[in-house]
Specification:
single chain, 115 residues, mainly alpha, 1 helix, 0% strand, rod-shaped
C-alpha cells in the first residue's frame, strides 16, 4: 500500500510538473506571438511610411525633371530665336549686297551701251 501511495505521488508530481512546463511553454509562445505581431505592425507601418515617402520623392523628382526640361526648352528656344534673327539679318545683308551688285551691273551695262 505504501509503495502504491508513493507511485501515485510520483505520478501526480510528474503530471503537475508536465502541466507546469506546458503552462510555461504556452506563456512563452504567447509572448513570442505578441512580439511577432508587434514587429509585423511596426514593419507594416514602416512600409506604409516608405510608400508615402517614395511617392513624395517620385513626385519631387518628376517636378525637378519637368523644370529642367522646361528650362532647356526655353534656353533652346532663345538660342533658336537668336539663330533665326542672325540668319534673317545675314539674308537681308546678302539681299542688300545682291541689289547693290545688280545696280552696279545694270549701271555698267548702261555705260557700256552708251559708250
Amino acid at each position: 500500500e505504501e509503495i502504491k501511495d508513493e507511485e501515485d505521488k510520483i505520478r501526480r508530481d510528474r503530471k503537475e510538473h508536465i502541466a507546469q512546463l506546458r503552462s510555461e511553454m504556452e506563456d512563452k509562445l504567447a509572448q513570442v506571438e505578441r512580439e511577432c505581431e508587434s514587429s509585423i505592425k511596426k514593419a507594416e507601418k514602416r512600409l506604409s511610411e516608405n510608400k508615402v515617402n517614395n511617392k513624395l520623392q517620385l513626385k519631387q523628382l518628376e517636378e525637378a525633371h519637368n523644370k529642367k526640361v522646361e528650362a532647356r526648352k526655353r534656353a533652346f528656344g532663345k538660342e533658336l530665336d537668336g539663330l533665326t534673327a542672325d540668319h534673317e539679318r545675314k539674308l537681308k545683308e546678302l539681299a542688300g549686297g545682291l541689289e547693290e551688285d545688280e545696280r552696279e551691273t545694270l549701271a555698267a551695262a548702261a555705260r557700256a551701251k552708251a559708250a
